Every structure is written in structure tokens, then in C-alpha cells.
Structure to design on (353 residues):
């Protein structure tokens, strides 16, 4: 017997590179929308096989040893999603289809299954399949430099933006696409506050311009206040114990700033029209702001539990059109770095790998 699945009116799709990226970068946003009734779908592009291991007892799971870290991180990701209240998680192309490429410039970038080597249209095709099924109005991914220059983050951006183009031709593309961002004012305030702290995550960084990320406040489109979900975000981060040690500066900052640090996340708008906002730059406080009511589904069945591949097209809706920056997508054969590879010391200081 076929069981019909009905999806909520608001549907949010996130495309992340590795397990833990979703929790660190967008955890409060995911938990906020899930708690308020939206359907939140997370797509993770790799298993994170090349990650560092901060659990000594699990050190031999590393890629250079037993190479079992990826499988272990599947369980960590499942626990993180549960903490965020997200039940719809997929690996792009299926678990293990694409491998963690490691940091830019390493030999692991050339692994035949490295996500950095993925055929762009093939990988985007996997994402379009999910878009056909879920029909998200809003998508979140990274900017063209993958926020801080990691090849898998850059590739996740390329794949997501190419999928938007392909899905637009079918009328199932999201109406708004956001990129994760960090306002320069927030970074400057952080550097000032922690200048004399023993837990200074900015130690060794002399100028804000030395960081591989940071967005002028005027370019920020949305500020999502999920402080009511900051404990969910912290719980999700703690689920990634192999990647984020209990002594991480992230938790030290959380202790000082509490819900404000854990609960507020920022985004730039890459595709679609900005909705009503507030403040000097008109920042949105809702990623669905400005979307007309008629973009909501007609509540007709959009999928089945028994056979996801049999999902037909939902009611036709207008195309979102081309992505705002095709040049950022890049050809599938282009493996050159988008921007200079980040200084690893500055990346480590920011808590990124």
C-alpha cells in the first residue's frame, strides 16, 4: 500500500559539505524553522573522511589509519540532526558517493572519489532529484569561496547553484537562495572583546582583512534570531565530538555570550527578491520574507514513503530564472581554487578545518 507524504507550506533546503558544518554554520536556523513547523531538508555532500580526530580513543579511525572516520561521523550527524529537530537528511548521491577532499592543495584533492573532482552536472543532478521531491522555496549554501576556501565548500556552492539552474528549467527551483555569511561588524566586535582573553580564537590575526571570510554589513540580507534554539545548536555541535573537542573555544564563547552567540546567524541573498526588513540595512528576520502565499503547495501529495523515485512533479510554479551569478558556478572541469587558498593558521584560529 502506498503511503502519501504531505509536506508543510514552508520548505527549507540546506546544502553542506561535511558533517558538523550544518551545526556550526546554520544549526540555530535549522532548529528555529523546524520548531516552527517548516520542513527542513539537509543535504551533506561527503562523510568528512579527512577530518581531524579530537577523541584520542578513536585516533586510528583516521584516513591514514583504518579510514573509518566517515562511517563514524554518519552516527554523529544523525545525533546532531535529532538535536536540531531535523528528520529529513540525505547524503548527496547516497552515503559514500563523494569523499572528503581535505584542505586545499593536499594530495587528497586528487582522490578519484574526492568531491572536488565530482562532475558538476552529475552531482547537481542528484540535488535536482531532491528539489523535485521536496520543492523547497528557500535554499542555503556557501558563497563562491565556500565561506573560507575549503575545496568541498567551494564545490558544494557550485553544485547547489548549478542545481538551481537545472531545476529552474523544470519549475522546481527554490525562489530564494542564501549564502552563509559573517558581518564584519560582528568579527570586529569579537576581535576587540577577545583581544586580552586566554581563549582568544583570533590570536595571531592582526587585522580583520587577514581572515578568509567576512562580509560588509550592507551586503548582509538576513539575520535569523534563533536564540530560543541555542541549546539545540550547542547539543548538535557536541554530537560531533570527533571534530569539536569539549574544550573548544566555541563553547568558551558560548559561555560568555550565551544564546546570542549560538543563536544568531547571518546570510547574503544570491537569488530572489529581498523581503521586508529592519535596521539600517533592512536585514530580513525571516528567510521566507517576501514570498507570496501562492508559492505554497496546494497540499497535494508530493511523495511516497514506499517509493521516492516515483514522485511526480507537483503543481507547476513559475521558474525562478537563472542563478544570479553563473560565473560563480564554474565549469565542471575547472578545478582551480576560487581565490587564494586560505592561510591555515588563520583558518585554525577561526575554528574551521
Amino acid at each position: 500500500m502506498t503511503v502519501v507524504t504531505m509536506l508543510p507550506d514552508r520548505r527549507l533546503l540546506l546544502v553542506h559539505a561535511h558533517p558538523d558544518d550544518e551545526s556550526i554554520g546554520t544549526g540555530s536556523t535549522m532548529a528555529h524553522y523546524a520548531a516552527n513547523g517548516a520542513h527542513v531538508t539537509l543535504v551533506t555532500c561527503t562523510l568528512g573522511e579527512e577530518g581531524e580526530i579530537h577523541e584520542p580513543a578513536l585516533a586510528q579511525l583516521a584516513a591514514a589509519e583504518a579510514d573509518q572516520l566517515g562511517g563514524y561521523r554518519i552516527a554523529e550527524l544523525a545525533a546532531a540532526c535529532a538535536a536540531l529537530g531535523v528528520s529529513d537528511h540525505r547524503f548527496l548521491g547516497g552515503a559514500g558517493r563523494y569523499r572528503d577532499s581535505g584542505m586545499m592543495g593536499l594530495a587528497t584533492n586528487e582522490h578519484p572519489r574526492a568531491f572536488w573532482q565530482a562532475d558538476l552536472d552529475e552531482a547537481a543532478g542528484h540535488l535536482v532529484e531532491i528539489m523535485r521531491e521536496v520543492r523547497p522555496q528557500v535554499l542555503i549554501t556557501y558563497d563562491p569561496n565556500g565561506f573560507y576556501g575549503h575545496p568541498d565548500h567551494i564545490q558544494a556552492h557550485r553544485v547547489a547553484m548549478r542545481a538551481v539552474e537545472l531545476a529552474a528549467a523544470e519549475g522546481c527551483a527554490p525562489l530564494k537562495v542564501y549564502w552563509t555569511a559573517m558581518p564584519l561588524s560582528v568579527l570586529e566586535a569579537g576581535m576587540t572583546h577577545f583581544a586580552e582573553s586566554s581563549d582568544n580564537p583570533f590570536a595571531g590575526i592582526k587585522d580583520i582583512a587577514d581572515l578568509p571570510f567576512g562580509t560588509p554589513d550592507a551586503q548582509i540580507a538576513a539575520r535569523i534570531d534563533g536564540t530560543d534554539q541555542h541549546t539545540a545548536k550547542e547539543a548538535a555541535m557536541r554530537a560531533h565530538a570527533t571534530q569539536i573537542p569539549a574544550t573548544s573555544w566555541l563553547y568558551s564563547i558560548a559561555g560568555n555570550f550565551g544564546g546570542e552567540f549560538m543563536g544568531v546567524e547571518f546570510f547574503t541573498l544570491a537569488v530572489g527578491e529581498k523581503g521586508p526588513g529592519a535596521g539600517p540595512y533592512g536585514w530580513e528576520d525571516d528567510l521566507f520574507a517576501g514570498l507570496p502565499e501562492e508559492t505554497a503547495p496546494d497540499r497535494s501529495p508530493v511523495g511516497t514513503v514506499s517509493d521516492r523515485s516515483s514522485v511526480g512533479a507537483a503543481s507547476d510554479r513559475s521558474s525562478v530564472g537563472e542563478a544570479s551569478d553563473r560565473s560563480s558556478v564554474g565549469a565542471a572541469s575547472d578545478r582551480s581554487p576560487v581565490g587564494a587558498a586560505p592561510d591555515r593558521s588563520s583558518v585554525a584560529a577561526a575554528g574551521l578545518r
Notes: The first strand starts at residue 4 and ends at 5. Residues 294-353 have pLDDT under 50 and may be disordered. The longest helix spans residues 151-168.
